Amino acid sequence: METAATPEQKAGQPPAILTALDAVSRPDPYPTYRSIQEGGAFIRCDVGGWVTTMVTGYADCSAAFQSPSFGNGYSAGIHADAHRTPGSTDSGLKSLLRKDPPEHTRLRGLVSRAFTPGVVATLTEEITSLVDTLLDAALAAGEVDLIEAFARPLPLFVICRLLGVPTQDEPVFSEWIVPMVRGLAPDMTLTPEDLRARTEATNAIHDYFRELIAEVRARPRHDLLSQLVAAAQDSDDLPEQEILDLCVLLLVAGFETTVNLIGSGTVALLRNPDQMARLRADPDLVPAAVEEMLRYDPTFPFTVRTALRDTEVNGRSFRRGDGVVLLLAAANRDPDAYREPDRFDVARYADSADVPRHLGLGLGVHYCLGAPLARAEGVIAFRALLARAERITLLDEPSYRTSSWVRAMSHLPLRLSV
């Protein structure tokens, strides 16, 4: 199979992948992503022997996402991160993410029942009640960090509720989540401190869930963890370690997506007051606005895939084992896919059925399992925030956690007035 010419990294300049990773925690990484995108649809990068191709356009990222010729390649030992740094512990976050069908299909089927529209609908009342309680406190305080006071507690409560984690244990999970999310990046991009923190957090959360699993075995309940334990007892195909890994994955994925959706969505509204005014005037636009927020500033700017066999994407050939990094944040603002891609438009997904589906929640077999829940949380949160806070003022610039793989807002100081 012949390989089409691909732009190479230029001598004396860092590989495009490192430039992209470095931009993740900046206030505005999108000029950097656009510059990378303008450098080519496929850009070959060599990072200390890790050779990969960065894919920057919407059509190409979508094609790779949906092609059965691309997957994770862990089982075949051909994924770039298949062999971890000696002495470090994998957080388990990639337990489902790293699987390819049919293993992926089996595990996804076990947990998908917790995220059906029916289950999400039953949680709506609890989510609404918590949102109102959090906003009561925030409005009474006047000046708040929206991340700490609102964006973090909401998804943490919901995902712990699904897993059956007692309310009093919820706060400690946010301490464990941060190093595990940071550890999502390939080991070669992490510092020794990152690896140590990931290992410690992983061991702590695994110990916690082992105790909770033992309680569930003795006294089954009506939650997802009880369902997983029951499935394990009925089959030899679900060992306890897989249950632990799935719990960690669901906890972290269900947390980070919503935290950043609320944080980045609020900032986008504040920086586009005409769009905030439009949303206040027409609350029915909130679901479309949430889709635009997910497109405009996604939590996960990248994803990594591996060619499982010799294949081709829109004229670019790949050999089995070739790695690709899909630059989703750039694809979501591809001018070939979206009209005025850098403009934040709360009605973009309401005005036309022809707008391409964003990649903020993935695509294909790895489409975000908790998407219905994240959307519901976002819609309820923004409807309430805009209805109850007559004035929202940014007191200082938002800050972001240092991360090369996840766009995670850490602080958003606001003044809320009725």
Automatic annotation (TrEMBL):
<dbReference type="GO" id="GO:0020037">
    <property type="term" value="F:heme binding"/>
</dbReference>
<dbReference type="InterPro" id="IPR036396">
    <property type="entry name" value="Cyt_P450_sf"/>
</dbReference>
<comment type="similarity">
    <text>Belongs to the cytochrome P450 family.</text>
</comment>
<dbReference type="GO" id="GO:0016705">
    <property type="term" value="F:oxidoreductase activity, acting on paired donors, with incorporation or reduction of molecular oxygen"/>
</dbReference>
<keyword id="KW-0479">Metal-binding</keyword>
<keyword id="KW-0349">Heme</keyword>
<keyword id="KW-0408">Iron</keyword>
<dbReference type="Pfam" id="PF00067">
    <property type="entry name" value="p450"/>
</dbReference>
<protein>
    <submittedName>
        <fullName>Cytochrome</fullName>
    </submittedName>
</protein>
<dbReference type="GO" id="GO:0004497">
    <property type="term" value="F:monooxygenase activity"/>
</dbReference>
<dbReference type="InterPro" id="IPR002397">
    <property type="entry name" value="Cyt_P450_B"/>
</dbReference>
<keyword id="KW-0560">Oxidoreductase</keyword>
<dbReference type="InterPro" id="IPR001128">
    <property type="entry name" value="Cyt_P450"/>
</dbReference>
<dbReference type="GO" id="GO:0005506">
    <property type="term" value="F:iron ion binding"/>
</dbReference>
<keyword id="KW-0503">Monooxygenase</keyword>
